[in-house]
Design brief:
The protein is α+β, with helices and mostly antiparallel strands and about 80 residues long. It is built from 2 helices and 3 strands. Bound molecules: FE2/S2 (inorganic) cluster.
Length: about 80
């Protein structure tokens, strides 16, 4: 038998299903198969399945988080 089991299909779907989670006092974590598009409509290159988007506005590598939120004391639920 060479077919995929229901568990294989479900597992793959769970890995690619998009999820968005806010981190307390930090970035927004985006997981899954989604495109990130900038304000000009261009697709932002992405090399990882999970990326952290800046929520504080101070990152030097926007739209991604570079950890600056800690240095500036960003606070958000
Ligand atoms: S949220 Fe991390 S640098 Fe802005």
């Amino acid at each position: 038998m060479t077919g995929r089991s229901d568990d294989d299909v479900t597992s793959r779907r769970d890995r690619t299903r998009p999820t968005i989670v806010t981190c307390p006092d930090g970035p927004i974590l985006v997981r899954g198969d989604v495109q990130i598009v900038d304000d000009m409509g261009s697709i932002v290159p992405r090399r990882r399945t999970t990326v952290a988007l800046c929520r504080c506005g101070a990152s030097t590598i926007k739209p991604y988080c570079d950890g600056t939120h800690k240095a500036i004391g960003f606070s958000a639920p």
